UniProtKB/TrEMBL annotation:
Gene3D superfamilies in the record: 3.30.70.370, 5' to 3' exonuclease, C-terminal subdomain, 5'-nuclease, Ribonuclease H-like superfamily/Ribonuclease H, Taq DNA Polymerase, Chain T, domain 4
Name recorded for this polypeptide: DNA polymerase I
Function as written in the Swiss-Prot or TrEMBL entry: In addition to polymerase activity, this DNA polymerase exhibits 3'-5' and 5'-3' exonuclease activity.
Cited SMART domains: 35EXOc (SM00474), 53EXOc (SM00475), HhH2 (SM00279), POLAc (SM00482)
Highest taxon listed in the record's lineage: Bacteria
InterPro entries, alphabetized: 3'-5'_exonuclease_dom, 5-3_exonucl_a-hlix_arch_N, 5-3_exonuclease, 5-3_exonuclease_C_sf, DNA-dir_DNA_pol_A_CS, DNA-dir_DNA_pol_A_palm_dom, DNA/RNA_pol_sf, DNA_polI_H3TH
Assembly and binders: Single-chain monomer with multiple functions.
Record-linked SUPFAM superfamilies: 5' to 3' exonuclease, C-terminal subdomain (SSF47807), DNA/RNA polymerases (SSF56672), PIN domain-like (SSF88723), Ribonuclease H-like (SSF53098)
Catalytic activity: DNA(n) + a 2'-deoxyribonucleoside 5'-triphosphate = DNA(n+1) + diphosphate
Gene name of this polypeptide: polA
Family assignment from sequence similarity: Belongs to the DNA polymerase type-A family.
Enzyme class: transferase
Domain 3'-5' exonuclease: 323-513
Length: 924
């Protein structure tokens, strides 16, 4: 996970031509030329340009039939028939398609496309990068290794070691030996007679290589196979030379020349229109081609040509009206067909709850083009202007929709997809793929710049204010459930949501690459949708009895503190009343520093009470203790019992994916981010989170990750060295800053260094450090000055980061996430200083968020391959929590630690601490 290393995406153009030709029915362009392979190739390239996250891209073609392999073995591919007559004119058109998309195409006489792919893959890996080969060709599987993987263009799934072993029964580096033994009748590779795929794999696994097999053949048990291995040894060796891809071919174009290029929209639109590929134009969000159909167009031409001809206005000018209400199954089928023809459909659900796990689907809406949307009511009640019986049966609708939602060739677009996916799961539909999420498309490129809600995005990008929920349901006491909204109003509201979502997708999707946010979205944000949905569905078991004991204990301690407070004040009052407390502190006790709020009451928030407590006043400290216990009691001890599923005794938090400026996840119902980390009360709360019977919890926590990121981005050699040597970073800082030896370091000095280390990350001021260490601001300033004198690179980083924020309005994490800092140019000094502290911290906190997200995606992909009976339950800041069968706990802890440490490449190694226990407290 680095931002500099090249990621080269290579498309096996030659292989894809034949696959598309045989997969698609006959189709001709307006001039009558066959184009089914061209159409398949074009759609593949459209999807690839939308989804791939490479920095470099090229399509590789065969230049001709004669290669060095024909000189080595004249019969090689000698029996292959000529290309079908309908395919031959499409070869040049496919090269035209590549040029129209502004993608480099490469071919070289005397070499096969596979050899060029092998050579480019080797070159980019040797340059420190990686390569994705878009092909499912078995002959290319020999290239898979660290840094090189295949991507199946049809299934859109990666092909790695596991997939190769499933197909060949051996590792990728042994594939050529299997192929050499079994031969290939299609390419006329001779192989060894009588040895098929299974037998070849068995031999390779037993002896390790072709040469080892041939060397062992004379001593094998007498059999026909033994004799064939002896008799056809040379044929096997020649076969290996034929199937082994050359990775030393001179590169026709250097890798640097293959950098991703912007598409020339008008050039591409004109070419697509000349082919009659109107649905592709629409799918890419371009203005439609001229409506008049060419005189030579046939019914075999693009399926949406007739529909496209009816579009008279550009997408951005289509009105937000004219939506349809679907009350007949035949009409729903037409919408589903339309979605398949277009290839992109926006989907939205209407429910009776903001809690997706509890929500009942009242209806759903679909949008297939700007201004072309519908609403399908499912559970509206008797206030309709039509009888309830006219609604379609929920089961019939979901049965029709399920294949569309699972169709890999149709992109489903949502706004806040995790919510809708959870609602569909509750309705019985588990598979929805592929998906895009307009909320996350925006968030990946504009975190902190503005909100990510649909209404705000619509106003910002479309200049349109959607119908509000209040407009259709009313407000306050007059609000009615959505199920009772009249169908015409429900349709106008719900279908508009889908329409807006689709239009936002057309605007936001192309911006990802332009704003260098595509990798962030594709590799992190989008995969997390399904991962977090699974985690929320799994939930975590809680011990209700322990929670009740905790609540009683908190209540008892609160009463004791409250009694002390009343004794100290000399009378009873409501400790939970800010107004009464303010009057006691500042009117009666006349403590200094009080400030009135706009309402005229005294301010008594946490910062005020902490300031008074630091001055030595006992009462504010007791109030803080009481408030902390009251918050823990209400937020966790009491609330968790209420939020617990009574059947499974598990609670299911909900993760918010697009709220923070830095990319961090947040959670609610319950909020697990605010459990105190280093207090006895926090440990007590974690004790109530437990494993299911026969299982344990495994915690994996990044150690000092933000300090490691600081050392990495600011290039502070003493900190880098300390991390590399595994030293106590706070003791090392104390030694460097205060000029005292590491040996015999006293705890107070180390604590002060620790406060500075972590404080610097948050742009701490001398006043803030003074409050934290209970020293004078002047002494705190000396500490900070000494710190910067010893580590000038940190000060330079801070100033450079603030300047970056002022210049661009945002800062970047080490992995390219934009974190906007809106207040960086504030005239008010206090607000501007706060924004500057945000700017300093955002690349570090955001970088940590990026790393743990990357780790979650990696773990979700690889955990099923381990066979361990485990699942990821929670993510809290820098920590992941898993539930696992007891026998698998140690293996899981090792696996998770290894994967998390490999999630990013920094100048210092990432360190992960793991723990195992029956409760979260034990594991943490």
């Amino acid at each position: 996970m680095t931002s500099e290393a090249p990621h080269l995406v290579l498309v096996d153009g030659s292989g894809f031509i034949f696959r598309a030709f045989h997969a698609l029915p006959p189709m001709s362009n307006p001039e009558g030329v066959p184009v089914n392979a061209v159409y398949g190739f074009t759609n593949m390239l459209t999807r690839l340009l939308r989804d791939h996250v490479g920095t470099h891209l090229a399509v590789i073609f065969d230049a001709g039939r004669h290669t060095f392999r024909n000189d080595l073995y004249p019969q090689y591919k000698a029996h292959r028939p000529e290309a079908p007559e309908d395919l031959r004119p499409q070869f040049s058109l496919i090269r035209d398609a590549t040029a129209a998309f502004n993608v480099p195409s490469i071919e070289l006489a005397g070499w096969e496309a596979d050899d060029l792919i092998a050579s480019y893959a080797r070159a980019v890996v040797e340059a420190g990068g990686r390569c994705t080969i878009v092909s499912s060709d078995k002959d290319l599987m020999q290239l898979i290794r660290p840094g090189v993987e295949l991507l199946d263009p049809m299934k859109q799934k990666p092909i790695r070691d596991a997939e190769v072993e499933a197909k060949f029964g051996v590792r990728p580096d042994q594939v050529v030996d299997v192929q050499a033994l079994m031969g290939d009748s299609t390419d006329n590779v001779p192989g060894v007679p009588g040895i098929g795929a299974k037998g070849a794999a068995q031999l390779v696994n037993e002896f390790g290589s072709l040469e080892a097999i041939l060397a062992a053949a004379p001593s094998m048990k007498t059999s026909k196979r033994k004799q064939n291995l002896i008799d056809y040894a040379e044929a096997a060796r020649i076969s290996r030379q034929l199937v082994l891809l050359a990775d030393d071919v001179p590169l026709p174009q250097p890798i640097d020349a293959l950098g991703c290029r912007d598409v020339e929209q008008e050039t591409l639109r004109t070419w697509l229109a000349s082919m009659g590929f109107h649905s592709t134009i629409q799918r890419m969000g371009m203005k439609p081609a001229p409506a008049a159909a060419p005189k030579h167009a046939t019914q075999q031409n693009d399926a949406s040509a007739a529909n496209q001809a009816e579009v008279e206005k550009p997408a951005e000018q289509q009105p937000f009206t004219g939506y349809k209400t679907v009350m007949e199954i035949e009409v729903l089928d037409q919408w589903i067909k339309r979605a398949r023809d277009v290839g992109v459909v926006a989907v939205d659900t209407e429910t009776d709850s903001l809690n997706a796990r509890q929500a009942v689907m009242i209806g759903l809406s679909l949008a297939v083009a700007p201004g072309e949307a519908c609403y399908v009511p499912l559970a509206h009640e008797g206030t309709l202007d039509q009888p309830t019986g006219m609604q379609l049966e929920r089961s019939a609708v979901l049965e029709r929709l399920a294949p569309l939602l699972a169709d890999e060739s149709v992109l489903k677009v949502f706004q806040n997809a995790k919510y809708d996916l959870t609602v569909f799961r509750g309705a019985g539909i588990k598979t929805i793929t592929p998906i895009d999420d307009t909320m996350l498309l925006s968030y990946a490129q504009s975190a902190g710049e503005h909100g990510q809600g649909m209404d705000e995005l619509s106003a910002l990008h479309l200049g349109h204010t959607p119908i509000s929920y209040d407009e259709v349901t009313g407000k306050g006491r007059n609000r009615i459930p959505f199920a009772r909204v009249a169908l015409d109003r429900a349709t106008a509201y719900a279908a508009e949501d889908a329409d807006v979502t689709l239009r936002l997708w057309h605007v936001l999707r192309p911006e990802l690459r332009a704003r260098k946010s595509l990798a962030l979205y594709e590799e992190m944000e989008r995969p997390l949708i399904g991962i977090l949905t699974d985690m929320e569905e799994a939930g975590i078991k809680v011990d209700a009895a322990e929670l009740r004991r905790m609540s009683e204990d908190f209540e008892k301690r609160m009463r004791e503190i409250e009694a002390d407070i009343h004794t100290q004040v000399g009378r009873s009052f409501n400790v939970g009343s800010p107004k009464q407390l303010g009057e006691i502190l500042f009117d009666e006790m006349e403590l200094p520093g009080g400030k009135r709020t706009k309402s005229g009451a005294w301010g008594t928030d946490q910062s005020v009470l902490e300031g008074l407590a630091e001055q030595g006043h006992d009462l504010p400290q007791k109030i803080l203790q009481w408030r902390q216990l009251a918050k823990l009691k209400s937020t966790y001890a009491d609330a968790l019992v209420e939020q617990m599923d009574q059947g499974s005794q598990r609670v299911h938090t909900s993760y918010q994916m697009a709220v923070t400026t830095t990319g961090r996840l947040s959670s609610n119902e319950p909020n697990l981010q605010n459990i105190p980390i280093r207090t006895s009360e926090g440990a007590r709360i974690r004790k109530a989170f437990v494993a299911a019977p026969g299982h344990v919890l495994v915690s994996a926590d990044y150690s000092q990750i933000e300090l490691r990121l600081l050392a990495h981005v600011a290039k502070i050699e003493p900190l880098l060295e300390a991390f590399r040597l595994g030293q106590d970073i706070h003791a090392r800082t104390a030694s460097e800053v205060f000029n005292i030896p590491l040996e015999g370091m006293d705890s107070l000095t180390r604590r002060r260094a620790k406060a500075i280390n972590f404080g610097i990350i948050y742009g701490i001021s001398a006043y803030g450090l003074a409050r934290q260490l209970q020293i004078s601001p002047g002494e705190a300033r000396k500490y900070i000055d000494a710190y910067f004198a010893k580590y000038p690179g940190i000060h330079d980083y801070m100033e450079r980061t603030k300047e970056e924020a002022r210049e661009h309005g945002y800062v970047l994490t080490p992995f390219g996430r934009r974190c906007y800092v809106p207040g960086i140019k504030e005239k008010n000094g206090a607000r501007r200083s706060y924004a500057e502290r945000q700017a300093i911290n955002a690349p570090l906190q955001g970088g940590a968020a990026d790393i743990i997200k990357a780790a979650m995606v990696q773990l979700a992909q690889k955990l099923p391959e381990t066979g361990l009976k485990a699942r990821m339950l929670l993510q809290v800041h820098d920590e992941l929590l898993f539930e696992v069968a007891e026998n698998d706990a140690s293996a899981l802890a090792s696996f998770v630690r290894e994967q998390m440490m490999a999630a990013a490449s920094l100048d210092v190694a990432l360190e992960v601490e793991t723990g195992i226990g029956h409760s979260w407290s034990e594991a943490h």
